Amino acid sequence: MEEEVTHVIETAQGIVLLTLQSEDENDAPIGGLLLIDANDEQETAREILTTNETLSALWCSPAGHLWVGCADGRVATTAPVGWAAPSRQADYRAHNGSRGWTVATLPVDSLEGLPPNILKIHGSGDDDVHVGTHGGHLYHWNGKAWRQTHQGDGTAYQSIVDIKGHGRDSVFAIGTRDMILHFDGAQWRKLPTPGSPNEGESFGGIALLTDGSVLICSAGDEGRLLHGGASGFIEFGRYPLQLNDVVTLGDRVLFAIWDGVAELVGRDVQVIKSNFLTAHAFEGRGRVFFTEPANPGIHFIVHDPAASPPWKRRNY
Length: 316
Description:
53% strand; single chain; five-stranded antiparallel beta sheet; globular; four-stranded antiparallel beta sheet; mainly beta
């Protein structure tokens, strides 16, 4: 049995891990959630969700409800949204006192009529949730119904790699290659990508800055940063690093760079850790988390400036 951590979020209850398990490399992985309880001094990871589906997205609403998405076009949540109970086809089982789950099947995409392969979930509340998919399609839950709000071209080049927003009327989404979208509360609008892309460039992540602006990072033969907002973006800088993902920690900006972690210092990007690998980065409560690439097992990296030591690899 192979198992790996793909997403890390922190809630009031503790750290939630999205894990994928497979018997061998030829099997489709199935997903589940583990919780490391905030009040557990032993830091035990206990199972809170098992499912028969390949989970591919995880988000926690401001009210503390969990949301997950899968490759077969379904979204499940612990929020009181009035959806159907889990079924044999979509089996979502709560464990260890976790809230029960309900499940919604999203409409097929308007381009090819296929179930959406969900990659990202983000929202401002349980009645305002955006879902991004493979092929660049976007969906929205308004508390009453799901609808498709943007049609991508169906290719991997427009697959949604991140969604973040300052509120209901200002949300950003990025596709793998050269696609920046802004949602104004009513519709998505494509924004121009400034400068010329690097060879093999792919966008990695979005960071919401304290001044209300946005940073977008990318990787390719160089790393690149774009800075701006709803009115447009400018090229901020190019760097000899792979900027795979980005998070904020207070007024700091940190990057997963594959060979470790880097930090934005002025207009420069400087490596601050290089003794482990990083694929993705996730914001917690006063700390950040990094997952490791192609490294099966239940482990992740924590950077907590208030802890001693401030960097720790946690294994389960």
